[in-house]
Fold these 2 entries.
Entry 1:
Amino acid sequence: MKLRAVSKALPKRVVNNQELACYLETNDEWIQSRTGIQQRYLVESESLEELCVMVAKDLLAQARLAADELDFIFIATMTPDYATPSVACLVQGKLGASKAFAMDVSAACSGFIYGLATAEKFINSGNYQRGLVIGADIMSRLVNWQDRSTAILFGDGAAGVLVEASDTSNLTVWEESLGSDGSCASHLKGGGATTFHLEGDSSKVELDFLTMNGREIFNFVSQTVAENITTLFDNSSVAMKDLDYVLAHQANQRLLAVLSKKTGIPETKFLSNIADYGNTSAASIPLLLADKVLERQLVLGSQQKVLLTGFGGGLTWGSILLNL
């Protein structure tokens, strides 16, 4: 499998830290010093479907392909426009991708990694030639905008890749490792708490909003996610010292520094764009990939060795070592 194209789509509205400080007890210096975030994009009238369709159309245009040449469409998201139909089916319909099957992947901030790993399995089966893997979330739907601890962190956006079968001599995926731990689900949860609504317990309405135990998430990243990365390299023919770059989920600039310290990978190899977008959940890794390809720091087909690492609600985590 190879990555043939990468693209992104963002809402029109940009909200900087100064704007948040107008109604939250915070300021730009406080936010930047603790998160590295300067601004984020937030939807006004845009739907998740619209953002994903923009990404999908650009991917097809770059690859000079028709929609009916796609075999599958995977959308990684935890903020779909509807419970059903899936965002992927809506995108498939808008594109006219009549030969593609479509499904959403729900793994929070690890979603793009899960989707990419799934796509590789379908392509390697020999029955599917190419497809789209898009990570997209409208996190502003889940955020309590009166809660400083979460309101400063999140943004909205979509980004993705077009993947297709490649000659076996051009190996793209060297190694992968995925994991989940539902026993820690309460550390990061929220949105659509229908169980409590059906019971008529209005005191649980706060579960419509995203809640996070910051200390537990920090421990999770510094221990479980770091171990996932080191174990992946222990099992790989690629040495950690030969790695060119790390594209980790853009949750918080401090967490990138923690992963660098815990894994021994130099912090200079951890690419970042969190200052411009905040935490965009499933969109963060492909959004970072798209930016760095546009900047020519990463080049598709260059054989650069990059590590993609996601982690988030579930709890979920996963890493994929790629040859670009």
Entry 2:
Amino acid sequence: MKIINKILGTVISVLVAVMVLACCWQVITRFLLNDPSQWTEEFLRYALIWMTMLGAPYAYGKDQHLSIRVLVDKFQSKNQIRTKIAVEIIVLILSIAVFIVGGIMVTANSAGQISAALKLPMQVYYVCIPISGCLMVLYCLERLKRWFTELKEGK
């Protein structure tokens, strides 16, 4: 998982850097050259989507996602682990149903569509949904393994 975290962190960082450059280019062409760039707005829109869809599993894998632990923290140790297992199973089911299955359907439905400015197949943009789902599943399985091990060891 460390390798996946490293790759995701690098990809997200590079994407942010490229987005900053594209945004600066858009400002320069719009206000200084009076000839706005045609591709930057669309690129930034889809780059933000990709960054979000890769950033969500990255944050989840590093346990830095938004979570509400008020209820879980009130339980005893074993019940905390059981609650964490239940949450992971729910996340796993939703990741498979919504992100992977739904993402594949959306990606397949976009076949033949071309983006307006960049002239790329829309599937390039939508494929980030099932990729994000697969990454979430990997992180969920890794966490479930950890929680079941802790439950078995009686921590």
